[in-house]
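quick one: alpha-D-glucopyranuronic acid bound model?
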Amino acid sequence: MNFLEQELKKRKLPSLMTLSDGSQVQTTQDWEIRRGEIETFLSRDFVGYAVRLGVKTTCETVRVEEHSYGGKAVTEYRELHVRSDFSEGMFPFTLTLPEGAKKVPIFLFLSFTHEIAGGIGEEILDQGYGIANVCYQDIAADYYDEHQTGLGRFCTRNPYDSWGKLKIWSWAVSRMLDVLLEDERIDEKKIAVMGHSRLGKTALAAGAFDSRFSLTVSCQSGAGGAALFRKKSGEQIENLYGKGSRLWFDGNFFKFLGKTEELSFDQHFLLALMAPRHLYVCSATEDAWADPSSEYLGCAAADPAWKCLGYKGFVGKDGYPEAGEAFHEGEIGYHLRKGTHYLSREDWKLIIEYRKKHQV
Ligand code: GCU
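yep, here:
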């Protein structure tokens, strides 16, 4: 057994490729069934189910800045309205495209602020990418609001499996995608969803349940993101139960508090839902709370889903990565940046390198 296999064995993970009836996933059809099972575990015991009411969405452009970034781009200010028979909500986002864009790839960036791509929009545009930027707090506030703000109101809250904030935010991002897919200036085959930290967790929840995203990028997403829970260091389920993050998940998730080994899934299940599309995970050496090793092992543990579908999957190395190493060969890309918990230009640079290499 090689080194990574041994490391994974120590984690005592639930088997990704074993169907609930005990048989092994061998074919594409088997994987489709397994995929459905995994979606059930993750919806029931982790992120919760999305709104189960009929809703209608419409999108309005409220303002256009024709010559943003010194004339390099156009920025549209949009409002996405969501209506059901019982409630109504709206969140704004911006869409910035290079001037005269024809079928450009874009980043759907889950942002902590209204600043486009955290303030480095120009550098991204210069690489030929558009940016749909949404400030997550506009979708539903990130504090203990008992789901009374933003789109949280669209669902009767039950203590078991109704949507947590990760699901609310990621569901909203899928509604943005509905709109972006209709836009002829955008290459519908090259829409990446990306986020950092709690928004990396959100990006994964979005990409996992919406196969229209060609690439999902998780930056230092840690616990509840790309990091395996079993034998993880740093943040644990107990920490996520704190008031700041409790509502990110559904109620059932916390049945596993103090019983991590009993979780019906681990994060390689979430990562594997991206197969055979592209997934990019980045970690930072000093981000002990997120735990880079558990993120790296998450990628290795998800790899069999890609292999079973005839793809390369994760082409890493048989050992933990060194600071500065990047693995860009497979459909699962990974890099470990030197430094602390932060979305740096270096992360963006490597992600863009990966996108260009894979044309995704
Ligand atoms: C906290 C939280 C993490 C989260 C991070 C962030 O540290 O414990 O789970 O990823 O905030 O979003 O910055």
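The pocket of alpha-D-glucopyranuronic acid is lined by residues 197-198, 222-223, 235, 239, 245, 289 (CB under 6 Å).
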